[in-house]
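Box 3.1 A note on notation
Throughout this textbook, protein chains are presented in two layers. The first layer is the amino acid sequence; the second is a token string describing backbone geometry. Keep the layers aligned when reading.
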Amino acid sequence: MISVSPLAVEKLKEILVEENAPDSALRILVVPSGHGVQYMLTLEKEPRQDDLTFEAEGLKIVVDNESAPVLEGANIDYIDDLMRSGFVVSNPNVPMGEGCACGGQCSCGGHGQHEE
């Protein structure tokens, strides 16, 4: 459903340790915005009854039923360079020009990508 790069998995596991939440899962939400969609990444102790759950390299991931179809085939990566650092969601299901939900300023790289 969603692929997560090894670097993103490593960074997310570091966050779980920092937050003293080693058994928590990563929740990925898709929220409509004025310019397409916005992605939210949060930690979740218990999945809800209607959530889809899966694992990526030992990282538990939960997605609600409404976000699941939009996230099919998406990829989460972690970028750390001179210009930016953070999680980037690349999503082939979001039309060109609608996937950048950076407050409408699209400085995150454009098509289907959003930094968290």
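The radius of gyration is 14 Å. The helical segments are 6-18, 68-71.
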